Amino acid sequence: MTSPFRAATTLTTLEHSVSEGSFAAAIDSTWTIGPKVHGGTMLAICAAAAKRQLGEDDLQPLAVSVSYLNAPDPGEVALTTIVRKRGKQVSNVDVEMTQGGRTAVRAVVTLGRPDGEPPRHEVESSLASMPVEPPESTRAIGGDHPMASIVHVGKGCDMRIEPSSAHFLTGNQGESEIRMWVRPRPGDEEDIDTAVLFALMTGDICAPVTMNRGMFGWAPTVQLTAYLRKQPAPGWLRVAASSTVIGGTWFEEDHLVLDSTGAVVVQSRQLAMVPR
């Protein structure tokens, strides 16, 4: 498919629902980590539902704050939306995602118009020195890549880990930071609304940084907030995930996403559980 992420974020109206603003989405098994739906994909689908319910094409999801209550399986999910505010600059929509009668996600989506002008002030990150495109020798996550059997998301986009940051792939330990290049499929990149949702999804795209500290296994996200700072330019996205404090039970993970021009397009922070 040339637009697999648009397929995942395309919604149909639930005409027989008792609630106004109710939709359905069909999540393919591509958008899973292990057997369960990828958290960043669920965030993007909630953002799509909020934008659809608001019905204003020029608005984009500027901030999406998600609490994860249950991990859904791939397949159909239902989304219910409530518009909390319609404003000239900022609007707010609540979204609840359910599957089989169980609430999987509750989200608060803030919509508005992202910055279009150059920033008035910006502190350059170390990510800016990363090559804009991955070297040809960098392997895509797919085929016989050691992560491909778990990270199925690599089937729906092009994902490549920056080798020097992925200490866990060589059996070593290192800094709690992992860097990647990610690019959507051509059809997803060409559609601006899908490109925005894809960029928000990459705010949860990296492997848990706990792996670089020798802690493997499922690191469930409890809460995730992603900010859209600018609409992404076509091309590769550079992503860095990092953590400052890995505790006994909890750790935070921050994602920074730059587009092909070097602009910051997404920032995110999540609270997750250290693998057992």
Describe the structure in your own words.
With 276 residues, this protein is mainly beta. It contains four helices and 14 strands. The protein has helices at residues 4-9, 39-54, 186-190, 192-201, and strands at 12-13, 22-27, 32-33, 36-37, 60-68, 75-85, 91-99, 102-112, 157-161, 177-184, 221-228, 237-242, 250-258, 264-273. A twelve-stranded antiparallel beta sheet has the order 1-2-6-7-8-5-11-14-13-12-10-9. A two-stranded antiparallel sheet has the order 3-4. A hairpin with a 7-residue loop joins strand 12 and strand 13 (250-258). Helix 2 packs antiparallel against helix 4. The model has no long low-confidence stretch (mean pLDDT 95).
Top keywords for this entry?
mainly beta, 12-stranded antiparallel β-sheet, 276 residues, 4 helices
N-end to C-end Cα span: 37 Å
Q: Fraction of residues in helices?
A: 10-25%
Instruction: Tell me the major beta sheet.
Output: 12 strands, antiparallel
Secondary-structure element order, N to C:
HEEEEHEEEEEEHHEEEE
| Low-pLDDT regions | none
Q: What is the spatial order of strands in the main beta sheet?
A: 1-2-6-7-8-5-11-14-13-12-10-9
Number of helices: 4
SS content category: mainly beta
Question: How would you describe the shape?
Answer: globular
User: What percentage of the residues does DSSP assign to strands (E)?
Assistant: 35-45%
What is the β-strand count? Answer: 14
